[in-house]
Design brief:
This protein folds into three domains: 329 residues, Alpha-Beta Barrel (TIM Barrel), CATH 3.20.20; 146 residues, Rossmann fold (3-Layer(aba) Sandwich), CATH 3.40.50; 107 residues, FAD/NAD(P)-binding domain, CATH 3.50.50.60. The chain has 22 helices and 26 strands. 52% of the residues are buried. It has an eight-stranded parallel beta barrel with strand order 3-4-6-7-8-9-10-11, surrounded by six helices. A five-stranded parallel β-sheet has the order 14-13-12-15-26, sandwiched between helices. A five-stranded parallel β-sheet has the order 17-24-18-19-20. By secondary structure, the chain is an alpha/beta fold.
Length: 634
C-alpha cells in the first residue's frame, strides 16, 4: 500500500525521508551523571535503522543538577556544558549513519526543579531569572549544533517550564511573562526561538517545538490557546510542531496512554494547530496502526506522525510498512512497562513486547543455522511462542504443543480486566508469525515425554508455565465459596451485586478486583504486605481501581474461611478481624512445577526451561527468556 506517511516532507531546510518521527521521550539509559552510554547510542541507532526519518532524544537538561533551579537528578544526557558536545556527537554520528536526522530536545523542568518536588511554580521565578534561562536555552542549542545535530526541539509541553508559562492554570505572573495575554504567555518561548533562529539557524540547522495541545483540565491550556501560540511561534522561526497533551501536574494519563482511551484521541489538538500554521504539524500519542496513520495525513489532520512507545515495541515500523511486512509488526499494548527502570546489564527489556528494547547492544545476530532440526516446545505461553519464532527464523523446525485449545497462556487472562484488552494484540502477533513461518502447532495435546519423543526432537523447550498457589493449611481454603482468580478472569465464575474478598493484592488481584467492582460488586482485597507508594506505571495501570470503589486492606493475613466470610489478622495491631462476604477469590501467586522439567530431563539430552518454568516473571521477562534461549541453542 502507498501509505501517505511514507512520503517525504520538508521541515525547515531539511527534507525528511518519510513522515514518521521518533517523538521525544526520557529514555533513562545514560549514566546517573548524564554521561552518554553505549546503550543510549545503540538505542537511537536502532530507531534510525528502522526507518524513522527524524529522531528527537528527549528531556535534555540545559542546566546542571547542582545549578539553581535544579532538577531531581537525571539519567539522560545534558546540554548544560561544552563537555556534552563530544558525547552527543556519538549519538549524532550513529543516527546520521543510518540516514536519519536528529534534533535534541532542549528542556527545563520548571516547577519540578525543587528538591522537595512541586514547591516552586513559575510564579516564583524572577523576571531576571527567566531572561537568563532564555540564554541558557540558546546556549544549549548552540552546543547541539556543535555536536552536529540538525536542529533542536524546544520543549513546550507536559507542564514543564515553557508549558507552565503558557497555561493560565499555573501562570499567575503580572510581569511581561504573565498569562494575561497570549503575547505575554508566549514571550519566553518566542524570545528563545527568535534567538535560535537568528543566531544559529541556516541551511543545516532549524528549531522545532513540542507544544502542549491541551492541559486536559479546566482552566488550563486549550486547543485554541495552543493554536494561537503556534501562530506566534511560527513567525518567530519554528519550522514544525509536535502536539501532545497532559503531564504530571494535570495527569500522567493524558500524557502517557494507559489503554483507557481510543487510538488517536489527541489528534484533534494537532488538527487545531494545523489550521493556524503553514509549517508541518505532527500528531502523537496512542497512535498504533498504519492504516489509521495513513488516514490522518490523507485527511489533513496532521502532516507527520510522531511515534514514541510504538517504536519501542517495533523500531522497524517504518521499514516494515515500506516493504509490505505489516503482518510482522509488534504493536505497543499501552501497558506502561516501559516506565520500569532498565538495569545496566541489559538483562531485562524496556518494553513488554520487544525483548531487546533499550537493550539493543545485547541483541544477538540471527544466524540461519538450524538446518531443519526439530525442536519441541512444550507450552504455548509467550516464552514458548517467542522461542518458536526465533528458532524458526534460525532455520530450526519447531513444533509447539499446548494442552489447551488456544495460544498465549496466561496473557489471554491478563487481557480480561478493564483497559487491558490490548494485551490480546500480543497473541495476535504470535499467531501471525507462526503462520508466516510455517510453525507446526498442536493444540489440545498433553505433551508428555512419550508424546514429544514421536518427533525425535533435537531439543525440548519446556514452557509449561505455572500452577496457582493454594495454601492447604488455611481452614476452609477448599470450601464451596472459594474460587480461583483464573476462573474469574476466564468468566467461568461470575458475580453481580455481591460482597467479595480477594486474597492477594498483587497486580492480578487488584485488576480482578477492579473488574468485579465495575460489575456492581463490593470488593475487598486482603494483602499481607505493607502499603507502598505506587509508581507512575502502577498508578496509570490500576490506580483507577481505588477510585472505582475497590478497598484494599494492607498488613492483613487470611486466617480462616467459612460459609459466611473470612477471619483475618490485622498484623499492625495484632488483632483479629471478621469480614462477612459472599465469596472468596484466591489470587495468592503462582509457582512452577519442577516435576515437569525433571520428567523431560530424564528423557531428552537437551532440555531448556523458559519463561516461568525457568524463573517466575512477567510477560516482558518471559518473552525475553524465550528469545534468549532460542538465540543460545547450539
Amino acid at each position: 500500500m502507498g501509505y501517505s506517511f511514507l512520503e517525504p516532507v520538508k521541515v525547515g531546510p531539511h527534507t525528511l525521508r518519510n513522515r514518521i518521527t521518533k517523538s521525544a521521550m526520557a529514555e533513562y539509559i545514560c549514566a546517573g551523571d548524564g554521561t552518554v552510554s553505549d546503550r543510549y547510542v545503540e538505542f537511537y541507532r536502532t530507531i534510525a535503522a528502522g526507518g524513522a526519518s527524524l529522531v528527537v532524544p528527549g528531556i535534555i537538561p540545559l542546566v546542571e543538577p547542582q545549578d539553581p533551579p535544579i532538577f531531581m537528578g537525571t539519567f539522560n544526557p545534558s546540554l548544560a556544558t561544552d563537555e556534552a558536545i563530544g558525547q552527543l556527537a556519538r549519538v549524532v554520528d550513529a543516527v546520521h549513519g543510518e540516514g536519519a536526522l536528529i534534533m535534541f530536545q532542549i528542556w527545563h523542568s520548571g516547577c519540578y526543579a525543587t528538591p522537595d518536588g512541586l514547591k516552586s511554580m513559575v510564579d516564583d521565578f524572577t523576571t531576571e531569572e527567566l531572561r537568563a534561562l532564555e540564554g541558557r536555552f540558546v546556549d544549549a542549542a548552540r552546543r547541539a549544533k556543535a555536536a552536529g545535530a540538525d536542529g533542536v526541539e524546544f520543549h513546550m509541553a507536559h507542564t514543564y517550564l515553557a508549558s507552565q508559562l503558557l497555561s493560565p492554570l499555573f501562570n499567575h505572573r503580572t510581569d511581561e511573562y504573565g498569562s494575561d495575554t497570549i503575547e505575554n504567555a508566549t514571550r519566553f518561548a518566542k524570545n528563545v526561538i527568535e534567538r535560535i533562529d537568528r543566531e544559529l539557524c541556516d541551511n543545516t540547522f532549524t528549531v522545532i517545538v513540542k507544544l502542549q495541545g491541551s492541559d486536559c483540565t479546566t482552566g488550563g491550556i486549550t486547543a485554541d490557546r495552543a493554536a494561537e501560540a503556534a501562530a506566534i511561534l511560527e513567525k518567530a522561526g519554528a519550522t514544525m510542531f509536535t502536539v501532545n497533551a497532559g503531564g504530571a501536574l494535570v495527569g500522567y494519563q493524558y500524557m502517557s496512554d494507559n489503554g483507557h482511551r481510543p487510538e488517536g484521541w489527541k489528534v484533534d489538538f494537532a488538527a487545531a494547530v494545523k489550521e493556524r500554521v503553514s509549517v508541518p504539524v505532527a500528531t502523537c500519542g496512542n497512535i498504533r496502526h498504519p492504516d489509521y496513520m495513513h488516514e490522518l495525513i490523507r485527511d489533513g489532520k496532521a502532516d507527520i506522525i510522531a511515534l514514541g512507545r510504538e517504536l519501542y515495541a517495533d523500531p522497524e515500523f517504518p521499514v516494515k510498512c515500506a516493504t509490505g511486512r505489516e503482518d510482522e509488526l509488534r504493536y505497543c499494548v499501552s501497558c506502561l512497562y516501559c516506565f520500569t527502570p532498565v538495569p545496566e546489564d541489559d538483562s531485562i527489556p524496556g518494553c513488554t513486547v520487544n525483548p531487546w528494547c533499550r537493550s539493543e547492544r545485547a541483541h544477538p545476530e540471527l544466524v540461519h543455522d538450524g538446518d531443519g532440526r526439530r525442536v519441541a516446545i512444550v507450552g504455548a505461553g509467550v516464552s514458548g511462542l517467542e522461542a518458536a519464532v526465533v528458532l524458526a527464523g534460525r532455520g530450526f523446525a519447531p513444533t509447539v504443543f499446548e494442552r489447551s485449545t488456544h495460544l498465549g497462556g496466561l496473557v489471554d487472562l491478563a487481557a480480561k480486566p478493564p483497559h487491558k484488552e490490548r494485551l490480546a494484540w500480543i497473541i495476535d502477533y504470535y499467531e501471525r508469525q507462526l503462520r508466516r513461518l510455517g510453525v507446526e502447532v498442536r493444540l489440545g495435546v498433553e505433551a508428555t515425554p512419550e508424546v514429544v519423543s514421536q518427533i525425535n526432537p533435537y531439543a525440548v523447550f519446556v514452557a509449561t508455565g505455572t500452577n496457582e498457589v493454594v495454601p492447604g493449611r488455611i481452614p476452609g481454603i477448599h470450601g464451596p465459596n472459594v474460587v480461583r482468580v483464573r476462573d474469574v478472569l476466564d468468566r467461568k465464575v461470575r458475580f453481580c451485586d455481591k460482597r467479595l474478598a480477594i486474597i492477594g493484592g498483587g497486580m492480578t488481584g487488584i485488576e480482578t478486583a477492579h473488574m468485579l467492582a465495575l460489575g456492581g460488586n463490593e470488593v475487598h482485597v486482603i494483602e499481607m504486605l505493607p502499603e507502598k507508594p505506587l509508581g507512575i506505571a502502577d498508578k496509570l495501570s490500576f490506580g483507577d481501581a481505588f477510585t472505582d470503589g475497590v478497598q484494599i486492606h494492607y498488613e492483613h493475613q487470611l486466617v480462616l474461611i467459612d460459609e459466611g466470610g473470612i477471619d483475618v489478622r490485622d498484623l499492625a495491631s495484632d488483632t483479629d478481624v471478621r469480614m462477612d462476604c459472599d465469596a472468596v477469590i484466591l489470587s495468592m501467586g503462582i509457582r512452577a512445577d519442577p516435576a515437569v522439567i525433571k520428567a523431560f530431563e530424564a528423557a531428552f539430552e537437551r532440555v531448556v526451561p523458559v519463561g516461568d518454568a525457568a524463573a517466575l516473571g512477567r510477560i516482558p521477562t518471559n518473552i525475553r527468556s524465550g528469545a534468549d534461549a532460542a538465540y543460545a541453542l547450539a
